[in-house]
Amino acid sequence: MITSFNLGDIVETRKGHPCGSNNWEIIRLGADIKIKCVGCGRIVMLQRVKFEKSVKKIVKSNVIAEKSLAE
Q: Taking the alpha carbons of 9, 1, 56, 40 in that order, is the dihedral positive or negative?
C-alpha cells in the first residue's frame, strides 16, 4: 500500500471510472483526498484510508516540481 502522495500526482486505481479511465490527479490532501479523473474531469472526494487501498500505482509523481518551488 502506497502512503506518500503529493499534490499533482497522477495515480492509477484498481477500479476504473465509468468514462473508461483509471488515472486520477490528486488535487487536495488531508484527512480526505480530492481527486480529478484525467479522462473526463469529474472530481471525487474520498477518505484517505479508502483512497490508499484503491491506488494501484503512481503513474506520474510531482515531487520534482515541489522541490523547485521550495528553493
A: negative
